[in-house]
Design brief:
With 721 residues, this protein is an alpha/beta fold. Helix content is 48%, strand content 12%. The strands form four sheets. It has an eight-stranded mixed sheet with strand order 13-12-11-14-15-16-17-18, sandwiched between helices. The protein starts with a strand and ends in a 9-residue tail after the last helix. Helix 1 (39-53) links the parallel strand 3 and strand 4 (61-66). It contains 28 helices and 20 strands. The protein binds (2S,3S)-3-hydroxy-2-methylbutanoyl-COA. The site of (2S,3S)-3-hydroxy-2-methylbutanoyl-COA (T1G) has 28 residues, from strand 7, helix 3 and helix 11.
Amino acid sequence: MATMLEEPATRAAVHMEIEDGLAVIRMNDPARPVNVISAGLIEEMGEIIDRLDAGEDGVRAAVLISDKRGSWIAGADIEEFKNFNTPADAEAASRAGQTLLTRLERLRIPVVAAIDGAALGGGLETALACTYRIATDSPKTKLGLPEVNLGIVPGAGGTQRLPRLVGLRTALDLMLTGKQLDGRRAMKAGIIDEVVPAPVLLAVASRVAMELADRKKTPKSGRSTGSPDRLERLAPMRRLIFSKARQGVMEKTHGLYPAPLRLLQVVERGLDKHIDQGFELEAKAFGELAVTPEARSLVHVFFTSTAAKNDPGLTSGAKARDIDQVAVVGAGFMGAGIAATSAEAGIRVRLKDVKPEAAAKGLRTARESLSKRAKRKRLRKFEVTKLLDRVQPTTEYTGFHASQMIVEAVFEEVSLKHRVIQEIEAAVGEGTVLGSNTSTIPIAKLAEASARPDHVIGVHFFSPVEKMPLVEIITHAGTADWVTATTHGYAKKIGKTPIIVNDSPGFYVNRILAPYMAEAALLLQEGVRMEAIDEAMTEWGFPVGPITLYDEVGLDVAQKAGKIMSEAFADRMKPSDIVDRLVADGRLGRKNGKGFYRFGDDGKKTGPDESVYGVIGNPAARELGDEELQERLALIMVNEAVRTLEEGVLRSARDGDVGAIFGIGFPPFRGGPFWFVDRTGPARVLERLRALEQRFGARFAPAPLLEKMARDKTLFFPEDA
Ligand code: T1G
């Protein structure tokens, strides 16, 4: 007979049911959308382990499962990180998690982790302490140790258990990238013993648990990778692995992020020691890292980006329409990317172009992209066919009426877009959102051609669409709230992080990029070498420098955007004529293999093209220190960001940080331009801008909001001070 042992009503995140010697431990935190390892959960789990340890009711095996759909355990409670005032606070939290999981691992009975949904960070660490791990093949099932993305290392035994289970290389790869694997890939990596469909998870887990108790079964994970690899046990091999990993980290992060380097140290030192000594090293590192400014900024990025994704910020309560079909007009590179990304999220797509060849080419591009993703996900043949079939090419507007959302991605020309909008409107009825993927044309201008201007909205993707996480949604004064809500829901559904901004030249992302790019061109004009400018900014934390960015986006595109911005903000964004000269010299950047830099036949950048200095008419003889370059470039962008908030282009500082990090690559460890102002201090930022204004003129004039904040001693995020 089943015995249901009730927990006190206030603490009911974990329940245990016992039947015929099997304990099913069910997690479902009523206070949270996902299960997290909070102080409360540690206590409740501890009590359950006490009972199992005491041999309760003849329990012979246990299954650990979640009653929350799509979430197993999302890791430690990141909210609680805000309570860490000292390294000792954080170290103690890590030790509490380690102790719990060591007790779980050392139970006399086998425990099967039955995983459906996210098992991340402390979630995966919990699974690693179980005897056997079964995951479902659901797309919601993700396994990984994403702690580095929060500026910390795994703190509940993961740095020690994972390498011992799957070998050094696989473990380092997972922990240094924070990548998340679905069930099948996790099994290939040796983390998971078995993958099953969700409906049979509990049944299979229960059977396996009893078989383990009867010694009819042994775990298989770890073995499929052949790990721990014998070679990896040899000292020279290990040294090589660590030195390569260290080199990789330095190349990628320039040593700006302490967590990955500390992780390598903890794993290396812990490897030959008893695992308990490894846990000591881990807890210490966790404690020190959790209170660093880098970790605080990265936690800010987690919460702000999650909030941007979940909250469209509408006060009217307007509801989003569900989206199961979209139509994309314009099957170029962007259109194909939008189609592929939508299809991957389970949305049916009509991909239209005027000529059949163009539609077919777009379809090919979309399918190639989808096939690559399917391969990585190890989809079965019928699943791949289903995925590819979701994108249907067309030269007509047939089938458009069944779409809830249209995204036009035709050439950036107002008259063409006007015509396309009218054609679309003739084919669809009321209630279909009309989104434009323009990056330069005001949305209000596009809406002028529309019979239903309240249905018109900007939905600005970044290239390559499959990789870039941001979607900038732009409302004009007449956009209806349900249209905004639906577009926000669409962006979220396809896995993007949206920010919603008001219509204004350059919107937000290009608006703050423009003065930064213009400043880089001015530095060239002053005679600074291109690599010096690029290096200064990668050292500051951007993924690439501004001169490389010119080559990447295309000099003709940058020229056009620069003109629009200088017309709108003439006092601050007068571009130098360098870009004009390069374009006139036939240099378009990477796309024609000729830009500021030289490119090899394989498209790779080979080095600065010295002949550029001749085109510019300047010998590049001036040396400026990194600090001056960084200050001019970073502050001109930060100041512009503050202006957009002040003018109401941005609705919140939160969106400004998310947009700069996810759209431009503003260094995440600096938390975004607004967080940067808070951490530097508005008064200090103001003082530096004033000094620059004196030397270089009005383009550095501080945003009035900064003056006000410095005067009133206020912050953008006072709650995080
Ligand atoms: N802590 C606190 N809140 C969390 C959370 C967490 N770990 N994970 C999610 N939430 C909140 C989130 O803020 C949102 O809140 C809601 O849950 C739904 O999330 C000891 C040190 C799990 C894949 O980094 O990746 O373990 O907006 O909208 O799209 O070594 O959330 O509703 O108020 O994102 O379905 C490591 C972070 C922690 C995982 C779900 N774990 N989370 O995605 O929903 S460090 C992570 C995610 C750690 C150990 C250590 C995703 C998700 P609200 P959501 P989703």
